[in-house]
Every structure is written in C-alpha cells, then in structure tokens.
Amino acid sequence: MAFPLNKSTTIAITGLLIAWKLYLSATLQLHPDEAYYWLWARHLDWGYFDHAPMIGYLIRATTVFADSEGWVRLSGTLATLTISVLIWRLAVQMFHSTEVASASVLLFNAFPMTALGLLIVTPDVPVFVFWTLSVYLFWQIVQTGQARWWYALGLSVGLALLSKYTAVLLLPCVFLYLLATQERRWLKTLHPYLALLLAVLVFMPVVYWNSQHEWISFRYQLGHGLKGDGYALERVGEYLAGQAFIVGPLAWGVGLCALAVALFQKDKAVRWLLLSTLPVLAFFALSSLKKTAAPNWPAFANVGLSVLIAWYLLQKPARWSHALFGGAFAVSLLISLIVTLHARFGVLPLATFSPEAAQADATNALYGWRELTQELEHRSAGARLVITSDHQLSAAIRYYSRERLIAVTDHTTRPSSLSQWGWPAEQEGRDGLYLWAAGHRTWVSPYEEFFAETTKAPPIPVFRPGHATPIRTYNLVIGHGANFAAEPGR
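and the corresponding structure tokens:
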C-alpha cells in the first residue's frame, strides 16, 4: 500500500470523503425521489404508500430549522459517519487488527454505493444504518454471551424494518447463524423470541397503518419486488453487473472470492460476515430471474462484504494481497470520484459520443427542477394548482416552490402517497396548470378532463449548466375552472 492502514489514515481519508459529500449535498439540486421523501417529512405518518416511514422522520429531524438541499440530505452524511464507526469497531473486535479495520472502513467509503447511495437520501439511508447496527449488536451477543444484547438487537431490527421492509432478511441471516454454530444454544432460551417480539412491537405502527389502508404498502412492495414477465437468466447477469458497479468491479471480484473462501471457514467472525451478506445477495439474485433487482436493493449487505474483503486480503500479510487491496480501493474510489465529479461539474463529455447518451445521463435528475418551478410560477399568473402525470415531478415542484404551487398527480401515473392525500378542495373551480414531460407519454395527455377550458402554452425546455441541448422538455397547458370530478379515487 502507498499509505499505512491505521486510524489516522482512516480518519483523514474518510473525513475528506465526507467533506466532499457535504459539498455535493449542499450544491446539487434534489433528486425527485428526495423531494418526494421531503413531502413525507411535511406529512408525518406511521406509513406511506411506497415504503416504511423512517426516511420521512429523518428528513423532518434535519430540516427543523432550514430545508435547503444540504439539510434535507444531512442524514445521509451522518449515516456514512455512523456506519464507518460501527464497521471499525466490528472489524477490530472480530480480527483484533487495526489494519483490517482501516481497510474495511476505507473500502466502504470508496464504494460507489456509499458515494451515491448515501448521498441521495432515500429509505436506503436508514436501513444501511440499522442493518449495520444489527450486525454489530448480534456480534456482541456472540462475543460476550450476554443476554442483554438480544434486546438491543430486537430494537435495532424493529428500527430497520421501520426503514425498509427488506430488512426482514436479517431474521433468516441470524437464524442460519444460530443453526450453523454452537450459538444454537440461544434457541433454548426466551431471549431470541422476546427480542423478535420487541422488533415486531416497534414495527407494529406500520402494520396498523397498513391495516387501515387496505394493506396498500405491503401489497405494492410485494408486487414491485416479485412480479415480473417470466423467468430470464440474463436478468441475473444484469443484477450482478449492477452489484459490480456499486461496489467497484475489482472489489466485487475479490468479494466473490472472499465469500467462496468464507464458506469453508469455521471462524465465528467470518461465518457471521458470510451469513449476513451471502443470503441477501443470493435472495435478490434468485428474485432477479423474474424481475431485475435494482442495484440498491441488496446494497446494505455489502457493508459486511467490505469487512470480508479486508479480512480475505490482509489476514496473511503479503505484498500481492496489499497490492490487490490497493487496486480494489483505487478502482472503487476512482469510479466514485468520476461519477460525483460528473454529477457536479459535468466532466464526462457524453454529448460528444451521442446526444442520446447525454440525454440518458442519470445525473441529469439532479438539475433543472428549480428552473422549471420558477418558470411555472412565472406563467401561473397567481394560480397554485399544478396537475402532472408523475408523482416525482409533482414532488419536485412542491419542494422548489416550497408548496406555493400545490402539485398533484392525475390518474395516469402510478399510485403514490400523493394520490392518497388527494387534491386541495379549495382549488376546485380555480385556474391551474397541467404539466407533463415531452416524450414521457406516446398519447395526448388527458388535461381536458381536469378543466372547463384549456389553453396550450409554449413548452418549457430545461437545461443543465453548460449544455446547449435541453435535458428535459415539458408540455404545458393553462387550465380554467379546475374540475375535481376527474380526481383519482373519486
């Protein structure tokens, strides 16, 4: 390695990466998903259509005094710091090596999933934290043999479930470990079952909320994650490629080797890392046969993978293993820096390759929402109602107008919390706007259903700084006499 793996190096490099994350958080516009969860924070509840509610609570906590982009995203930076501390403590306890601990933390912070997945605040942020905390707490049970840790684990698992439903996968991971080791003795005591009961009690408000809303969130997530168009092996390849990107291709390859070697290890620490990682990755690989799993779905399991990679490469010090760790770290960090630099400064000349590549650039989602909203306010002539065909678009308009514009969604979009909340009754009969992305629909949008009279307005192109070609174009209709008879759900 070109630098020593110790606490000072880890603090310095992690601190620089967190400072970079803070800068990006404050200077990039919100992704529409983030604006959507900001709306959750403005309408706190025990449950929401799409996910469990924890991300709404976190955004509410960090935006008490201000709700600029940096404050909305603050929980992502705090999560990165918290997880880094937990990984350090876990690795030191497991392997009694500051070198392995340093390598684990540095790898985790270099992963593109950390640079991107914990920059954009979504339910992945809290589930990362509580999954990592649960992995750490279970290891305290194994290491100390003290029953009190079971109750801390139960609370942590409950909070993980309040963050994202897929945290339920932690339960079979723990059970498999208990069955596979002498820790199965715990199954003859009440403590695991009382801990499970505690987790269920913490999660119960979400169950109650769903029971009052036709189990809509549970039904949506089951359908979203498991329904598909038939089995196809190539989807597994897409899934694996996605994991290679969010971890880094070299680190992912080394990680697969580490998982394979760990299968034959009897060391308790290695076995727990294996069983808190591999079952999750395998579950989503199998489910991707029917429907491609998004790269972020199993990403929280890669926390344990970072420690496994460090153990695999550094358990027996050798020049080649240190060099391989350095290469894996450098490749992952390079991808993270290129993507985040491009997100902020547009360093990749995609337009020179093809206009289509520039148009499809995923980082475009971090631009244009403020400018679009300003133009809508300019054209609205005082009207507040905006109807769109996309819940994310509506959320971005609400955020950047600070709800001066009340954006709702029509019946053409997929259901969301916005469709549950309904339309503002005081706007019925008033003027408003209907907005949709050009090319988003192949048919004429049904704006005439929602107003007594409509007038087509010039489209609104949205540009990214330094780009001559619009990254998005929106069609706009000015409506008179809003007709709420056509409101979804009526």
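(Above: one complete record from the training split.) The chain has a mean pLDDT of 94.
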